[in-house]
Amino acid sequence: MTELETALRQLGGELDYPPTPDLASAIRGRLERPTRLWRRPAAVALAIVVVAAIAAAFAVPQSRSAILDWLGLRNVSVVRVEKLPVVPATGRLDLGRQVTLDEARRRAPWLRLPEGDPDSVWLNESLPGGKVSLVWGTPSRVRLLLTEVTGRAYIEKVVAGDTQAESVDIGDAGAWFQGPHVVMFRDRDGRFHDSQARLARNTLVWQLGDVTLRLEGGLSKAEALRIARTAS
Amino acid sequence: MERARSGDEDAYEELVRAHQGIAFRTAYVIAGNAADAEEAAQEGFVKAYRALGRFRAGSPFRPWLLRIVANEARNRRRSAGRRAALSLRAAGEESSGGAAPSPEGAVLAGEDRERLLEAVNGLREEERLVIACRFFLELSEEETAAALDVRLGTVKSRTSRALEHLREAYD
Q: Residue A36's closest CA among A148, A158, A165, A199?
């Protein structure tokens, strides 16, 4: 190598490149196939319709036979259906009212907190035992949502063929849902509300003692598990 | 790689982490600014993921990826119609964390490096890019050909021409 070439290489090491951004995290939410239901505008446009059909399905005990019991989560049931019903992809998070982290801790002493403060904290007391939601981003543009319920509160998830549900090693029991699925919470009277059903993204659900935690966002499984393991 | 090809997002994320540095810097050299470089690299990684099915098993990933990222960067630079000069790190900043200077340290010091950089920035665009790819980013000739979307022979001839011009301007 000539002296000039050596000098050029050395110069290359001293160039003022801007720091490399965290591209792996930035593209995480964009790797799903573009045809995913929750991304289709039509799914949002049709939003409110058809939810009645799924509620009717829940009313018939036999149709629940496809529940995935093997996941081992006490307060979560998973129903597998042929085709997902059409529900809103966004909004209707039913977060309740905004509270401070201290108030959330007082009213829900069982609350488990992961590393990193959320941008806002919400409490919904219409669920038995209450439901606390930690939001990163804004309520209308949620980047990451951690929902925690305890005791008799109940989460129901409806998954279709292309949604993967697998057991993962976290807390007392955990499950990872990859792909779109419908999520519903049971209220104080033990009923599911049509209006609360919505389409969810990749989600990690796990159990810590009496608390059921649910982490949703454009996360990979590894990233979700990493965050989940910081919650204690 | 095989896991990523079969749609394993975690495996692809590992690939991205392994290559995001070189992808971003390549995009930066071509696009000329950080914002466009970030966008180009991001878009490139997403497009590469979607095109993994067409990636030939067993062939090296890096040139293939750099071709996609560089193409994105070129599109952005063309639409912006600008070209930015590379700049040097602030004088006195130790890139090696205070360790002893490398043996090459003696080759280039003080004003010399400013002058050399000025000479590189003064080259025609195509020569400047081939110098940046080969010596600054230390890409192989194959990778440079992929990034600049030219033939291997063109990389060789362009490099020697650019070195000649640099010698004239620098000496």
A: A199
CB A153 within 8 A of CB A79: no
Closest residue of B to A12, CA-based?
B136
Judge: A12–B136 Cβ closer than 8 Å, yes or no. Answer: yes
Burial letters B82-98, b for 16+ CB under 10 A, else e: eeeebeeeeeeeeeeee
Closest Cα partner for A54 from A159, A204, A180, A203?
Answer: A159
Find where tokens 């608390």 sit.
A211
Nearest CA in chain B to A26: B42
Confidence of residue A188 (pLDDT cuts 50, 70, 90): low
Residues of A with CB under 8 A from a CB of B: 2-18, 20-24, 26-28, 30-31, 220-223
Of B13, B147, B15, B37, the C-alpha closest to A18 is B37
Residue B69: exposure state from Cβ atoms within 10 A (0-12, 13-18, ≥19): buried
| Residue B142 C-alpha, separation from nearest chain A C-alpha, in angstroms | 18
Helix (H) or strand (E) holding A121: strand A120-124
Q: What is the tens place of the pLDDT at every residue in A101-140?
A: 999 999 888 899 988 889 999 998 877 778 899 998 887 7
Which of A10, A22, A23 lies nearest to residue B107, judging by beta carbons? A10
- Token readout for A129 is 């035992």
What residue in A sits closest to B95 (Cα-Cα)? Answer: A14
From the list A188, A204, A186, the residue with the least C-alpha distance to A196 is: A186
**Among A37-41, A65-69, A72-76, which is the least confidently predicted range?**
A37-41
How many CA within 13 A on the CB side of residue B11? 10
Q: What is the C-alpha to C-alpha distance for residues A221 and A226, in angstroms, rounded to an integer?
A: 9
Cα A204 to Cα A126, A157, A216, A222, A227, distances in angstroms: 23, 12, 7, 10, 10
Q: What is the DSSP code string of A89-110?
A: SSS-----EEE-HHHHHHH-TT
Asked if residues A101 and A155 have their Cβ atoms less than 8 Å apart, the reply is no
